[in-house]
Amino acid sequence: MSDSPLILQVQGLSKNFGGVKAIDNVDLDIRQGEIVALIGPNGAGKTTFFNCLTGIYSPTSGEIDLSDPRTGKTTRVNGKKPNKITEIGMARTFQNIRLFPTMSVLENVMIGRHCRTKAFIFGAIFRNAATRREEAAIIECSYDILKQVGLHKQVNEQARNLSYGAQRRLEIARALATEPFLLLLDEPAAGMNPKETEELVALIRLICSEGHSILLIEHDMKLVMTLSDRIFVMDYGKKIAQGTPEEVRANPAVIKAYLGEDVDA
Amino acid sequence: MDYFIELLFAGLTRGSIYALIALGYTMVYGIIGLINFAHGEIYMIGAFTSFIVATVLSIYGFPLLAIVVIAGVAAAVWSSAYGFTVEKLAYRPLRKAPRLAPLISAIGMSIFLQNYVLLAQTSDFLPFPELIPEFAFMEPVAHIVGSSDMVILVTTTLVMIGLTCLIKFTKIGKAMRATAQDKTMAVLVGVNVDRVISATFVIGSALAAIGGLLIASHIGQINFYIGFLAGIKAFTAAVLGGIGSIPGAVLGSLVLGLTESFATGYISSDYEDVFAFSLLVLILIFKPTGLLGKAEIQKV
Amino acid sequence: MFPVKELKRSALIALWFAFLTFPIMVIKVDPIERVVQYRWDNMFFIAFGSFVISILAKVYVIRKERRAVSKKETAATEPFAQRIIREPRFLYPLVLGCFIFGISFPFLFSTYQTNIMTTALMYVVLGLGLNIVVGVAGLLDLGYVAFYAVGAYSYALLNLNFDLGFWVVLPIGGLMAAFLGVILGFPVLRLRGDYLAIVTLGFGEIIRLVLENWNAFSQGPSGIANIPRPGFFGMDMTFAGGITYIYYLVLLLVVLTIFVVNRLQNSRLGRAWLALREDEIACQAMGIDKTKTKLVAFSLGAFWAGFVGVIFAAKTTFVNPASFTFLESAIILSIVVLGGMGSIVGVIIGALILILLPEYLRALSEYRMLAFGAILVVMMVFKPDGIISNVRRSYHIRKQGLSEGESHE
């Protein structure tokens, strides 16, 4: 794994809100094909970190470089708009599910195809052959992705009527539709029952085996430890540890952050 | 120089009236995040109520002081009642609705109230009785500063002091500040949020009514349409100062009043209203947080 | 069946409204003649009216709650109107019927009626145009009338100064409005929804005030008269003929607008608009360029308003700033809100109700604006989706090939 190319390099990333340092000088890197977890107690700055990566916040300082393994092209993305970053090839899901609630399941995924398709006013009005072909391809591709996450029986259901677990899977499907090489999942297992979590683990493995690398924030330690190749740990905006699951589990700083007190391991 | 001072006072007078209305916008926005589009109409209703009451009392031959007091109280009472009712009917049911729903409802309320007064009363301009006499001690400076300017400035200052004390020291004031900061937390510590919101509307409406009475007797005429323009301008002032901020609303109002006064005095009065609208558009585009407002951090 | 407690509550509400409306509804003073008039009958009407309305509102709420409970067991029942629209069996004959009625209207009714119908159809187009902006893309544009004014003044001024004809100006008027939409939209569309509403309102008022005050350019408040009606291959037309001609022109525009808006809604662009209305941040995270997408919706809406503006100038042969006040924007907004945001059929019905009803029920016309205001409030509180809510199309996916289902609107 260590010889595969780097696809994400974060150096010295900081984000201040007023006087509060939500993220303080964090480095992180991900290689092609890895599943990496970002963990830490509540309020450690994990979601803020995601928001900086995906362009929803612009970082106060630091650099974020994305390299597309398919082309080998490296782009510096800090300060770019979220839609540009998605276009380059990094997609995300949200901690508090943000689907398009009154649109159908299929349409939610079709939105993900937006940045990979072109039809515009002219095509919409005249519905020429190229537009019709493109539209058919969007539907086909979206349906295939839905099949992968197991939602293909509910294509015409409104997104808000899905069960909680299904909504989380739909968010993943929608993100996959943008053809990312790196997928960020923000607490994908939150609120899921054990069976759903098990299915999620299988799904994440499947996605990874298809060539997508994954960075995930998660509180479910069992899931993190079974899935991740490497783990980064944050506390109070700082990175306090990194390494393989075994290394992290044994790290005294991590134990202290989670349990609050010095514990003799 | 006299002309400059005249414009200065005219601007301050204008600004204080805007401030009385702008406070209602900013308080409501601070608490429920709604642009209360109907607030200008509440001010108009205040002016109308004081007009009706004052005229009736003067026909019945009441003394001037009694007329002023009773008309002022009546305007404040009824405007507050309207503000309270509007909130209950048009905004409270929409508290969990998407953000634009209460705004559309507010626009509807504004149009409704305008036409309600138009139909129940008249579309003509009505002469407002002179409630503020020319004071003898103001005589030497009367060509620069009128007595009514002075009364407006003094009244507004007193009202501002009163409001500040109310918000700083009373229980309801504390509850209002708490609700503005974090509605969920306020509920958890036992604040009755519904009551706080109602109180905000009542206080804001009463202030607007006082503004209505003062400006109507200053200008000397009213009609059903005065609320629209006054409302937009006061809103501009609130945004200029930083919407949600009470000192900001006062500051913004004074800046707007002075700008208008000097711009019309030295440049041209043809485009008087264009100044305010342009200012509104420019602030919202370039500095939506205003002079004293804080930037909102969008939670994701 | 109706609890006494509720009756008591309604009685209290009636008392409250009697108090609330006392100075304005009951007292009327004449400050010049110095007479006071007390209209106690008004107080009675208010009290009685609010009593009845509060009971009706309560009944509505109770029924709605009951329905919400029973809905969980039975399949979701669609409202009657919506079922008709969904079912092609009913929809196509209905559309055909409407079309035939539309075509034969000038033969069946007088010139006066045709003229009114033309106005109503113009509002249909305006409503559908604003519907793209407000209903589909969720951008509350309170200055829509400014673009309408740009179209109307384009024709009036280009005709006055350069002697350009109707057909030449028609696209120019639309494009000018769209261009202005882009210029304005670029800086303001990144604002939050409610600020956007206020900025567009301010912008609309600025346009009107400039038209009113810049005499050298627009002839000020007196406006521009003697604008020629559109020609038809140089034919001379009678007054009635001209009216019929404009009627068909507008009818054609309605058909064109429905066609275009329907296609736009069911396209990649239309989906992006809907998604933008539902969640801007998620939308951006999905790779949609927020500014560009909004700008397209905003300027397309403006284009339509400009188009209708040119026709308005040609129809009335006279334009002045008083035709383009904020209230005009509010009327068009009421049409969209009443009809149902995002729904084409809804907006058409909304426009016809709101424009035709006050014309034919003269007694009501005085209360027109009062009703428009009330409609905005009542619809938001009780039925935010409008009388006909937007029906999302469904997709049928076959085993191998993937063909779309028919799209319904």
Report on this model:
The complex is a heterotrimer of chains A (265), B (300) and C (409). Chain A is an alpha/beta fold and 265 residues long. Chain A is 38% helix and 24% strand. Chain A has 10 helices and 10 strands. A 6-stranded mixed sheet of chain A has the order 6-7-8-3-9-10, sandwiched between helices. A 4-stranded antiparallel sheet of chain A has the order 2-1-4-5, covered by helices on one side. In chain A, strand 1 and strand 2 (20-31) form a beta hairpin. In chain A, helix 3 (105-112) crosses helix 5, helix 3 packs parallel to helix 6 and helix 5 (129-149) crosses helix 6 (164-176). The model of chain A has no long low-confidence stretch (mean pLDDT 89). Chain B is mainly α and 300 residues long. Chain B has helices at residues 2-32, 39-59, 64-91, 100-120, 147-169, 171-181, 183-188, 193-219, 226-241, 246-267, 272-286; strands at 126-127, 221-222. A two-stranded antiparallel ribbon of chain B has the order 1-2. In chain B, helix 3 (64-91) crosses helix 8. The radius of gyration of chain B is 19 Å and the shape is globular. Chain C has helices at residues 4-20, 22-26, 40-71, 80-86, 88-108, 111-136, 144-162, 166-188, 193-213, 215-218, 239-265, 268-278, 280-285, 290-316, 326-339, 344-360, 362-365, 368-382; strands at 27-30, 35-38. The two termini of chain C are 40 Å apart. In chain C, helix 7 (144-162) packs across helix 14 (290-316), helix 8 packs antiparallel against helix 14 (290-316) and helix 11 packs antiparallel against helix 14. Chain C is mainly alpha-helical and 409 residues long. Chain C has 2 domains: 4-67, no CATH class; 83-393, ABC transporter involved in vitamin B12 uptake, BtuC (Orthogonal Bundle), CATH 1.10.3470. The radius of gyration of chain C is 24 Å and the shape is globular. Chain C contains 18 helices and 2 strands. Chain C has a two-stranded antiparallel sheet. Chains in contact: A-B, A-C, B-C. Chain A binds chain B through residues 17, 47, 51, 56, 94-95, and chain B through 297-298, 300.
